[in-house]
Amino acid sequence: MQAPIIRSTIDTCVIAFGLRQVDDAGGQKGSEPPTPPDDNINVVVRVRPLNKRENSLNDGMTLEFPGNGQILVTGLNDVPGMKGTKTKLFSYNVVFEPGATQEDVLQYSGITRLINMAVDGFSSTAFCYGQTGSGKTHTLTGPPHLFTGKKVDIYSEDHGLIFKSFLYLFKVLQEKKECHFILKASFLEIYNEKVIDLLNPGTARKPLAVRWSKKSQRFFVENLFLVDCEELDDLLAVLEEGMKNRAVGAHMMNEHSSRSHTILTVHITSEQQMENGVFITKQGKINFVDLAGSEMTKKTHSEGKTLEEANNINKSLMVLGYCIASLSDHKKKNGHIPYRDSKLTKLLADSLAGNGVTLMIACVSPARSNVTETLNTLRYASRAKRIRNKPIVVMDPREALIISLKREVAALQNENDHLRTALRLSADAIANDPTLNASRINLKTPPNINFDRIAEMEPSELSDLVRHYAQENDALRKENTDLFLQRDLLIRDQELVCRENERLLKKLEDVNTVCVRSPLIGARPTLSAEALNNSVDLDGSNVWTNPLNSSTGSLQNLSGPTNAKNPTDRNGNVENRSKLVESFQKELERRQISKRRNPPKGNSKEKGTLPPIRPQIPTTENIFGADKPEDQQIVADRRRSDASAANAAGRRRQFVLGSRLPNSSPQNVLPRPENINDLFGAKEEPPEYYNDPFGSEISLRDEDNQDEIERKGSAKKEERK
Ligand SMILES: Nc1ncnc2c1ncn2[C@@H]1O[C@H](COP(=O)(O)OP(=O)(O)OP(=O)(O)O)[C@@H](O)[C@H]1O
User: Fold this and answer.
1) Residue ranges in 598-687 assigned as alpha helix (H)
2) Among 182, 177, 146, residue whose Cα is nearest residue 162
3) Of 637, 621, 629, 646, whose CA–CA distance to 717 is shortest?
4) Which family does the similarity line name (predicted)?
5) Which H or E run contains 212?
6) Is 187 helix (H, G, I), strand (E, B) or coil?
7) Buried/exposed code over 57-95 (b: 16+ C-beta within 10 A; e: otherwise)
């Protein structure tokens, strides 16, 4: 059942990379295509095949491989704390199944990316983690027999990741012809919490001190041998020498068990000449870490020296576990991480949560008898996957400063040139401009730097150099500010000119309008005049129409055809308005009378309510509210008095309430009643009086109509009687 799933995984690999043929026979080689690089720790899992002992004991497989970087742990019933859980699924970047070769691991684990990054100046780390006998050393360096003989067989397919990475590294270096590389390597082991130099162990295996470097902000091993490696052979010699010197022991689970953690580091210094002649030096490195395996001392039957080793191994791995757990927890990440609790975590601190890129290869046994340890390793790996690093290129701080200053100078120069072009200032103009020259007075080009000499330069010489660049920077910044100021001034001037332009245009328009109106000058339409014409409401659509009477509601209907272009009327409807107001006043008059006759009943609030504008369809008599003879008398009197009042006022005011009431029903067409003056159509002069809603007459202007008032007064008195 399993084989087809695994084969399909291999197919995916082959299609994606086209690197190898499908292995129909074995089938168990599968791996997933590498995921695109990100800042997380890249975690892959390698499952070794069942070994001879496990096969002889008929120890079955506890792992299944559903594909897509997933791994399924079965048979969990025997695991403490997992009762009731049958299976557990984990997913990683890549899962190497038991059939995967050493070459597969090189190709698909992402180690090649780490090497490329190390060449580019990053700090990278690949470490193997897992229980004892799970295949960590095999993955990193290959089977033990490779280094036990007199001569290492360099053509062996079994070589591990370190050997294959060296080959790949030299290939990359050869391709980068524009750079000059210096390689140095160190190899150490941490045995029983002591750091031993595997390239110079000495007969006494004297331990080295681990110290904190303020400069590089990381731990380092004091007096560690750094071997120059000009050739690939030199690197291979380092690996061989270290493998021979490392502490190895035998126990029940592994005949060649590593009793220490080992760290092989290749330091890569690259020098590259840039276009502007500046040399850039980057310092990258790659660490290969082979951790000793965690072991249950009961299972390994450890005692004496092996037991002490096992305890130390387990202790340092436990601290590593704490660090990984804290780093993967977002809440704890910024808190205390116990790096200092073991030599191993001190030296791995930078790889786990620093500025490097890290690859974790979790090695597991597929045997059912190891299910607890396998589960623990997979859990660790899952946690490590959540850790995020911030990779940075390591450079000499002095060079970095000079380079950044140079870059800033170049950027400022560019910006200034651009500004000058934008301002259209010629070189002559700049030379003649005292303000610009003043800002350039301090501009002195710093002397050329010989980067080869930087290491030998005196501190005073270096500080002079930095000062020069800083000065140039300051001067350029000042010039930059001046240019910006000038640009702002020009923009402001331009704005003023624009505004003046607009003002003049408007003036021209006004003149044009006047010209159009003048009878002496032929009419010439202007844009604004057209706009004005368009705004004239010829069809009365701007006039509010009472919807109750919409059939007769247009102003046009009320007043008949009007000449909208009448020069005395801006809106072309004075006549309309006078008629409108007249009808409005008639309506008010009618209500006044009817109200007097039938005063509103009910509470005061009701009294204050205006009667509806739309009247009842009136008869000739009740238009005036005078259907009784006595009322008709009153109306007749009122008519007379109104007429004489209008005459007495000399028709100075057009609208006097009560004059000329029509015999037909009023047109309920009203202008939009925005204010009282608009309502009466006389903005300049208010009407003389109007009837307030409560029936009292209020005089507004009557100094020249005293008689009229008196007459009204007496008429009122009569009315009351
Ligand atoms: N993928 C593999 N293919 C074939 N053999 C393997 C594989 N992985 C491990 N082995 C074999 O299993 C044995 C134990 O492997 P190895 O020594 O690498 O384990 P280890 O995890 O390094 O153990 P320790 O922590 O005790 O050092 C070795 O003989 C090794 O050759």
Assistant:
1) 604-607, 620-623, 629-648, 676-680
2) 146
3) 637
4) Belongs to the TRAFAC class myosin-kinesin ATPase superfamily. Kinesin family.
5) strand 210-213
6) strand
7) eebebbbbbebebebebeebeebeebeeeeeeebebbbb
Tell me the C-alpha distance between 67 and 523, whole Å. 88
Which residue's entry shows tokens 């008629």? 579
Q: How far is CA 152 from the centre of its chain?
A: 54
The pairing of beta strand 42-47 with beta strand 357-364: parallel
pLDDT for 478-527, tens place per residue?
888 888 888 888 888 888 888 888 888 887 887 777 655 544 444 444 44
- Please give the Cα distance from 654 to 578 (Å, whole number): 8
User: How many Å apart are CA 697 and CA 679, to the nearest integer?
Assistant: 18
Cα–Cα distance list, 629 to 594, 632, 633, 719 (Å): 15, 5, 6, 14
Nearest CA residue ID for atom 3, ligand 1: 48
Question: Closest by alpha carbon to 613, among 546, 688, 705?
Answer: 546
SS (H, E, C) 478-545: HHHHHHHHHHHHHHHHHHHHHHHHHHHHHHHHHHHHHHHHCCCCCCCCCHHHHHHHHHCCCCCCCCCE
First to last CA, the chain: 120
Q: How many whole angstroms from 53 Cα to the centroid of ligand 1?
A: 13
| CA dihedral for 536, 542, 543, 547, sign (positive or negative) | positive
Domain ranges of the chain: 31-385, 402-496, 576-720
246 lines ligand 1 (CB under 6 A): no
Distance (Å) from CA 136 to ligand 1 centroid:
6
Q: Checking phi first, is residue 650 left (phi over 0); if not, alpha (psi -120 to 50) or beta?
A: left
| Alpha carbons 257 and 132: distance in angstroms, whole number | 7
Task: Give 403-435 pLDDT, tens digit per residue.
Answer: 677 777 778 777 777 777 766 655 555 566 665
Q: What is the ipTM for the molecules in this complex?
A: 0.98
Fold of 31-385: Kinesin (3.40.850)
Integer angstrom CA distances of residue 626 from 308, 338, 641: 128, 108, 17
Q: Are 424 and 155 in contact (CB under 8 A)?
A: no
Contacts of 195 (CB under 8 A, 6+ apart): 188, 189, 207, 208, 209, 210, 221, 343
Looking at residue 328, its pLDDT comes to 74
Place of tokens 């090189």: 106
For 331-382, the pLDDT digits (tens) are 766 778 888 888 999 998 877 776 778 899 999 999 988 888 899 899 988 8
Comparing C-alpha atoms, which of 371, 377, 133 is closest to residue 256? 133
What's the per-residue H, E or C state across 17-52? HCCCCCCCCCCCCCCCCCCCCCCECEEEEEECCCCH
Q: What is the pLDDT of residue 673?
A: 37
Strand 70-73 vs strand 261-273: parallel, antiparallel, or unpaired? Answer: unpaired
Q: Report the distance separating Cα 613 and Cα 670, nearest Å.
A: 10
Tokens 């706009």 map to which residue? 531
Distance in Å, CA 132 to ligand 1 centroid: 8
Our mutation pick for probing the ligand 1 site, out of 162, 252, 254, counting the most ligand atoms within 8 A of Cβ, is 254
Any ligand 1 atom below 6 A from CB of 133: yes
Instruction: Confirm or reject: Cβ of 99 under 6 Å from ligand 1.
Output: no
**pLDDT tier, 534 (very low <50, low <70, confident <90, very high otherwise):** very low
Q: Is the CB of 102 under 6 A from ligand 1?
A: no
With beta carbons less than 8 A apart as the criterion, state whether 207 and 214 touch.
no
